[in-house]
Amino acid sequence: MIRLGLIGLGWIGRVHAEMVHRNEECRLSAVCDADPAARETAESYGAEFFSDYEEMLNRGGLDGVIVALPTPLHASAGMRCAEAGLPVLMEKPLALTEEEGQRLIEAAERRRVPLLVGYHRRFNPKVGLVRKIVREGGLGRLVGAVVIWALFKDEGYFKPPWRREPGAGPVFNNLTHEIDTLRFVCGEIARVQAETGNEVRGFAVEDSACITLRFRSGALGSIFASDTVASPWAYELTAGENEEFPRQREDCYYFMGTEASLTFPGLKKTFYRDSPGKGWREPLACEALSVVPENPYARQLGHFCQVIEGNEEPLTSGEDALGTLRAVLAISRSGRTGQAVHL
């Protein structure tokens, strides 16, 4: 039985705790959170509670640690876990800065412990199918990708002060997922340009962003994001991964190629059925694709257990996640300066 520790019992920490509770390969042995009120939740899972992760790590008896802290604390906590010789599942993003991310990667390499970064969407079977279709030429040559991430975060979300500060807005907290998914499906990003704004909420952090991307393949992409609009077009609302969000039967990703196009999460493939009858005056055919649904958080945890056992390599390694972090930082810099940023 793999014994796991969890640092951070906020919203995403509770998701991880529940996944561990349901998994027969592992158990939640220890939980650390600065809020004493988290003790009751930790003990409900049969875990020993700590208010200081140094004490938790010094106690020993763990085989791996999940870090689910606010982004500015990722690097320091992850490095400490690595120094303790423990494999780490680090919630996204890898770190707040590229330098911190690099130090975390180096700490894990020094101790030869695996570092898995929690871009759980890579474990969504629908995302896997889209990647397979795009990478194997099922759309012809990929020409473009469009992403909409638009919803309304309630006032309660912003009660913790850190969520109103730079590094906690939709670019870092949410679009890091969209960027990682686009990299996973479409390949590496060569250049970004962004406009960001905070006019609606007036916080120090952005509440909206509009981004253009050029992939190394030559394909183009665009993302519109906002956490201050009444909209059903966002991954959390459409993918059906978490019951806390009311399910919307809409699409939020669109992949377009020379031979076909594909939506996500609806998986509607559109194409010209009869070749050479191809052109804007010709009728289009549609095909509904499907896969067996699985909980991506549960699949990610199962993968982490296999990584701890030495049976699998991290699907999203520190170096891979650093690529996503660089792209997110480039978007932030472009939003500040109004200039395109090359990666």
What features would you describe in this structure?
With 343 residues, the protein is α/β, with parallel strands linked by helices. It has helices at residues 11-22, 38-44, 53-59, 74-83, 98-111, 125-135, 170-173, 175-186, 235-238, 296-309, 318-337; strands at 2-7, 26-32, 48-50, 64-67, 88-91, 115-118, 142-150, 189-197, 208-215, 220-226, 253-257, 260-264, 268-271, 285-288, 341-342. A 9-stranded mixed beta sheet has the order 14-13-12-11-7-10-9-8-15. Strands 3-2-1-4-5-6 form a 6-stranded parallel beta sheet, sandwiched between helices.
Q: Enumerate the spans where pLDDT stays under 50 for 5 or more consecutive residues.
A: none
| Strand line-up in the sheet with most strands | 14-13-12-11-7-10-9-8-15
- What is the structural class? alpha/beta
In DSSP terms (H or I, runs of 4 or more residues), the helix count works out at 11
What is the N-to-C order of secondary-structure elements (H for helix, E for strand)?
EHEHEHEHEHEHEHHEEEHEEEEHHE
Using the CA coordinates, give the radius of gyration. Answer: 21 Å
Most strands sheet = 9 strands, mixed
